[in-house]
Structure formats: C-alpha cells, structure tokens
Design goal:
2 domains; mainly alpha; about 190 residues
C-alpha cells in the first residue's frame, strides 16, 4: 500500500455493509413501531369510569406494605438468607406489578386532566391542570421505581432505598381525581379481583 492510497479487499466491504444496512433497517422498523404506538395512544379515547376504577381498585395498604422498609428489615431478621431472598423477590415482583398498574392509571389520569383543561369552565380547567400535574408526577415516580424494583428482583441481598413517596403520590393523585364530583358515582365494589 502506497502512502495516501487505500485498497480494500472486495470480501471485507460486503459483510460490513450488510451489517450496517441491517442495523438501519432494524432502526427504521423500531421507529415505525414507536410511531404507531404513539399515534394509536394519542387518538384512543379515555374511558373515565375505567380510569377511576383503576385508581379505586389498587390496594394502597398492600402496596405500602410491599414497599415498607421496616417490614423488609423484619423479614431479613426472622428468615434464613435463602428464604429471605426468595420472599424479597416475590415481594419485589408484586410491587413491580403494582407500580406498573399505577403507571397505567397515571397515564389515563393525565388524559383526563388534559381533557378537563380544555373545558370552557375555569373551575374544571383548573381542576384538570391539577389532575394532569399529579398524574405527571405519579408517572415519573413509577418510571423511577421500576428499575429500582428490577434491581431488587435481580439482587435481593442489596439494601435499597425505600419508595414510600410513590405510594404518597399515588394517594394524592387518587384524592385529586375523587374530589371531582362527577366521578363519585363509581362504587368500590365494582373492582375486579
């Protein structure tokens, strides 16, 4: 090879190009899926009764217990290390499911808040802004909690930080939603176990 000139072997270029074009195709496919999901979720109507039911059906006491650091300390002290890891994984999985459902409820609540913000009645619009803000905060809390709980599932011996603010934010969001008088007709008995 002379100075300043490049020569390529024909067999080396083709595999590199194939890999590059494959990655580009995968990226475009992933982008198309994300775009489809975003458009579908944006045009989907929110069922207010289902959103309220989702908030009412989540067992706050059980959720709080799963995230309670004192309960975890009690279990750590009274169980064998092997049994503790098993129980902690189960509790983390259950908490992850609660967090996932709280995130879904927060998304629905945000849509309700956004719809209320477009109301011509200033009181409803102000309530809608408050609902949307609480929903946004709750969604952020759930997004932060998921990696934390996944870490607890994978590494149960690790002592993590407690997540009580998530439950508190969920309760604040639920209270904001329930204060709106038109939603009070849904009974707690309509929850599906």
């Amino acid at each position: 090879m002379e100075h300043g000139t490049w020569t390529f072997a024909p067999g080396l270029i083709a595999p590199g190009l194939i890999v590059a074009w494959t990655l580009v195709a995968v990226a475009f496919f992933a982008l198309a899926i994300l775009l489809y999901v975003a458009i579908r979720n944006r045009t989907r109507q929110v069922d207010l009764e289902k959103a309220v039911q989702a908030f009412r059906c989540l067992d706050i006491a059980a959720f709080r217990n799963l995230l309670d650091s004192a309960e975890e300390a009690f279990l750590r002290e009274n169980l064998s290390p092997k049994k503790f890891r098993e129980i902690k994984r189960q509790r983390a999985w259950a908490a992850l499911i609660y967090v996932w459902e709280a995130g879904r409820a927060a998304t629905a609540l945000a849509k309700i808040g956004q719809a209320a913000q477009r109301s011509s009645d200033p009181k409803i619009a102000a309530s809608g802004a408050q609902v949307a803000e609480n929903a946004f905060r709750l969604r952020l809390q759930t997004l932060r909690a998921c990696p934390h709980l996944l870490t607890e599932i994978l590494l149960p011996d690790l002592q993590g930080r407690p997540l009580p603010t998530l439950v508190d934010q969920y309760e604040r969001a639920a209270e904001t939603l329930f204060r709106l008088g038109r939603f009070s007709s849904i009974e707690r008995s309509s929850c599906n176990p």
